[in-house]
Amino acid sequence: RGPWNQSSTNGFVLTNLFNETPVHLFLFSMVVVVYTLAMAGNTAMVFLIWGDARLHTPMYFFLSQLSFLDIFFTSVTVPKMIGGFLFSWTSISFVGCGTQMFFFMFLGATECLLLALMAYDRYVAICNPLRYPSLMSHQTCLLMVAASWLGGPLNASIQTTLTLQFPYCGSRKIAHFFCEVPSLLRLACADTASYEQVLFVTGLVVLLVPIAFITMSYAFILAAVLGMHSVEGLQKALATCSSHLTVVNLFYGPLVYTYMLPASYHSPGQDDVVSIFYTVLTPMLNPVIYSLRNKEVTG
Questions:
Q1: C-alpha to C-alpha distances, 265 to 160, 186, 187, 199, nearest whole angstrom
Q2: Mean pLDDT of all residues in 177-184
Q3: What's the pLDDT tens digit per position in 54-112?
Q4: Where do transmembrane segments lie in this chain (predicted)?
Q5: What is the CATH number of the domain that holds 54?
Q6: Which domain, by its residues, includes 71?
Q7: Residue 117 has pLDDT above 60, yes or no
């Protein structure tokens, strides 16, 4: 109880991602600009898709959910990082750390599942176009999105509960700009080997299973695309699929690096750089990638 009480009372201290050097000031300014663009772009996509009847299709319904997720996903970590740099608000309470960790895992896992469902949507649209209206009805889309939103908090509850049960009796300084599971486990004064195995298993479920599902969907899509005789249909299929594949690679790649590789393969400094990709850069690029590659959104 002693170590637990100390953690609960004192909380933790997050490290600043940037210092006062001119180069880091420039990088910090770029992060603020990218975050602002991410918020503006995703908010615009949500209102555009919800407000324009021409975009009331399953693909854009999933895209609106993706933009809605990204608005909150990037806001879980970046405002705290900005406040830490500008006002030295680097301390975070034990409850605050757990809350940030929960919502980060919740929204991240939900987005992983949603991207896999978007791959299935593209598979049905290209491989079974005649059955697309019945297979991807409005009710089906709602059920698919609800499943992704329910799977996220389930994963987050398990991860957060198991992480916070460890005693933290050593350093209070988290070598990261937000409370992420691997960084927090480095401070635990207990053997975390068994939990890291649990983390690996949940990573298999949340990351590698959706990746396998996406790969299988695109294998069928590739076979169908190669058999197309219409050049226009081929170009449209490749445009929509390449957009989704770009988003998948940008989001899944850094997450696999952080959560699937053993801790000995990456350092806290490397984790900071990699985390920037899926917390700031990818949420900004998602609406750009889809809006520039889809004539309907551009119109």
A1: 23, 14, 18, 16
A2: 87
A3: 888 998 999 899 999 999 999 999 999 998 888 888 899 999 999 999 999 999 999 98
A4: 25-50, 62-89, 101-120, 141-158, 200-225, 237-261, 273-292
A5: 1.20.1070.10
A6: 12-165+174-293
A7: yes
In this structure, are residues 165 and 112 in contact, taking their beta carbons and an 8 Å threshold? no
CA of residue 83 relative to chain centroid, distance: 22
pLDDT of residue 253: 83
Residue 36 structure tokens: 């602002």
Structure-token pair, residue 145:
């999105």
Q: What is the pTM of this model?
A: 0.86
- DSSP character at residue 208: I
| Measured distance CA(95)–CA(179) in Å, rounded | 11
Sheet of 12-14: strands edge to edge?
91-92, 12-14, 173-174
- Is residue 1 domain-resident? no
Residue with tokens 């806290």: 268
Q: Is residue 299 part of a domain?
A: no
Position 233 confidence tier, pLDDT thresholds 50, 70, 90: low
- The stretches of 188-281 forming alpha helices (DSSP H) are 193-203, 209-226, 231-260, 268-276
Strands 173-174 and 12-14: parallel
Task: Extract the tokens encoding 94.
Answer: 């034990």
Cα(242)–Cα(246) distance, rounded to whole angstroms? 6
